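The pair is listed for reference:
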Amino acid sequence: MTRLTQLAATLYLVALPVAGASAQKIARGVIKGFVVAANSTPLPTAIVTLDSSRAQVMTDSAGAFTLRNVVVGVHMLTARRLGFAMASAMATVAAGESTAVVLRLEPAPQMLPEVEVRGRKVIDLPRFTAAVERASRNTGAVFTADDIANENPLETRSLLEQLPGVHVNDRGIMFDRCQDSGMLPSRNAIRGSSGNGSFQPASGPSARIQVYVDGHRLTYRDAPGSASSMHDADDANGILKSINPRSIAVMEVYTGVARIPGEFLEDACAVVAIWTKAY
């Protein structure tokens, strides 16, 4: 064998392991589980987080959740839901396999009634029981003042990033179940109508992300371009950017038409209903 042939063979053997390593794929698996109460009752709308990251899912009506494409190894899962203490569990993921996990939440201590302490008002959750019960009944998401304080967001909009199917960026807000980004639509988009003046719920261009504050709708009702439309301020993205998150006592979020309560359904494909501490 010539020296040139020997050199070529040596270079091939050195390069071979490197090529094999670069072609190797990262092994992944799936985590499936349930979030239940202490008495084993399923808990819908609980938020399950993987390794304290932004990988989050919400449980369905049966309390079930699925996390896909999870890297093989040991992971920490945490679950939280309004009215319950947060719970954690470890899950070991194997390549191409499904790992089952059950997270059991204990009821949180009940909050005390509203009191006055040296002129400072302490906001109590019982005043907003109707909002919390409505969100639970319609599979909506709820953020309380305590949740918001723990998150310490710079903007109210950023709270929506925690919800599956909701995207927030510099251009606006996008709900996967809406065909509208939350900004004002074109001049040809008017609210849903049956042709005889009666309201028809819509999920097309006329259905929008609607925002209510203390029971009052702030997003527009008129056709865009009308004299009463506030183009710059009267849209979901702009309104949420203008609300200080620390002023919020409870915020309800409904991510699709099937989840929106009747009182918020008009022209809506998604709804954010905010109740402030001053309400």
The longest helix spans residues 3-23. The chain has a mean pLDDT of 76.
